[in-house]
Amino acid sequence: MSSLDNKAGLDVPAARMGGKALSGWARHPALPAIVLFIPPALVLFTLFVFLPITEAGYYSVFKWNGFGAPENFVGFRNFDRLMGDRHFMTALRNTSIVIAVSLFIQLPLALWLALALSEKTWGVYVFRTLFFLPFILAEVAAGLIWRFVYDGEYGLLAKAFNLLGSEQFFVLGDRTWAVAAIMVVIVWKYFGFHMMIYIAGLQNISREVIEAAVIDGASRWEIIRYVKLPLLRHAIVVSVFFSVIGSLQLFDLIMPMTGGGPSNASHTIVTHLYTFGIVRTRIGFGSAVGVVLFFICVAFTLIYRRAFMRPEH
What we know:
It is built from 14 helices and no strands. It is mainly α. It folds into two domains: 3-59; 77-308, MetI-like fold (Orthogonal Bundle).
């Protein structure tokens, strides 16, 4: 046998062995990552998402106070009672107000500041940090701080009224002004987060694109309208999604500020669930609220993804 034949004879089995090896892990390079990361994710999803949702759906058809096993089956009576509950309607209206304020005040403010602070200079970094700090602050701590600010007797607002010679005014104790006061805190707390999303998107825009627009004679406003905003589309889509989902889940700011008061006027869907479901040990009724909230979130997510998050070809 010649050296060439010997070489060929050695290469063929080696190639076959290599083919067998490629049929396993080497043929599917993502398989090790799937085996390593999917099972823990499934366990966490099952424990903290699937099981709670399933249990809420089960308890929602019972009149149950949380003690012992649920036995008093009431069917969909909890949902019927929910639709006729004026406090739930107030919570639904307040949640809608939070969404509207977030979309039409908070996000435009964040976008305007992002456009103003997108340049990389020392002074800009200082303002970015100052505007982002409220988001870092814990929601409960922020709620307690603003409760003191709004306090009509000892808070900063009371001091301002005293300087103006006006009578004391308890903002959080007024049914009309409590919700407006909460909206101010929501804008203050979260606009920095959305500002940073927009800044990240602006910094990904190629400098050559901006320079080409300047050479073509585009004004500053035309660059923003026809260049920056279209290229920020994905950042805006993500920001709107976070804003709406966060508004639907708003809880931590409300409880330390008003607890849903005065007279249940400032409840959101989640604080209504907590107050009328858990605190008052009406677990079946609270589970019905949770099921309704779950379907609202799922419906919004599916519709929004289909409308705005389609992959572009």
